[in-house]
Write a structure and sequence with these properties.
- With 168 residues, the protein is an alpha/beta fold.
- Helices cover 27% and strands 26% of the residues.
- The strands form two sheets. The chain has a five-stranded parallel sheet with strand order 3-4-5-6-7, with helices on one face. It has a two-stranded antiparallel ribbon with strand order 1-2.
- Strand 4, helix 2 and strand 5 form a beta-alpha-beta unit.
- Helix 3 runs parallel beside helix 4.
- The longest helix has 13 residues.
- The radius of gyration is 21 Å and the shape is elongated.
- The model has no long low-confidence stretch (mean pLDDT 92).
């Protein structure tokens, strides 16, 4: 629930202290903003985004989509169909070179055999993706190989559990 009459101290773009007004020291050099009848909330996260550079029929550019996310309070975007360009953009945003929400970029995989999985996961890891997005088209053996290989590389898996894999 909302908590009234709080002080929020931000330094270098990060919240460093929160507490009741008068109980949290504010450095003299810090700029202050009277929140009055306003409120502060954490940034929102879009955990299933498809950015325009991976969707050829989208009418927005990636820059426009990310600007809209920021304008609506979305500070983290998990791209479920990542591209090499998104990896570059993720790093540029993190370095403060361009404005945008924090990007978490997934590498889409589908239609793999169990034998092909280890090499594909190694490629994904080497490219610097943050997670694996399973699109489908794998049998039980390939799914098991995917889970094992992703874990070995420290990569989470998100996406679709194929209907061929019973949830027992």
């Amino acid at each position: 629930p909302p908590v009234d009459d709080q002080t929020v101290v931000v330094a270098d773009g990060r919240i460093v202290a929160v507490g009741p007004m008068g109980a949290v020291p504010i450095p003299r050099s810090m700029r202050t903003i009277d929140g009055g009848d306003r409120f502060v909330m954490p940034g929102l996260a879009d955990m299933h985004a498809h950015l325009p550079d991976a969707e050829p029929d989208d009418t927005l550019t990636t820059d426009q989509a990310l600007a809209l996310h920021l304008a609506r309070g979305v500070t983290t975007v998990r791209s479920m169909r990542g591209t090499a360009a998104q990896l570059v953009l993720r790093d540029r945003i993190a370095a403060g070179e361009v404005p945008g929400p924090r990007l978490i970029v997934g590498a889409p995989v589908q239609d793999l055999t169990a034998d092909a999985v280890p090499a594909r996961i190694a490629e994904i890891d080497a490219a610097g993706y943050d997670f694996v997005k399973l699109m489908g088209g794998v049998d039980r053996a390939a799914y098991a190989a995917l889970v094992e290989a992703a874990a070995a590389h420290g990569l989470p898996i998100a996406g679709h559990v194929p209907s061929e894999i019973p949830l027992d």
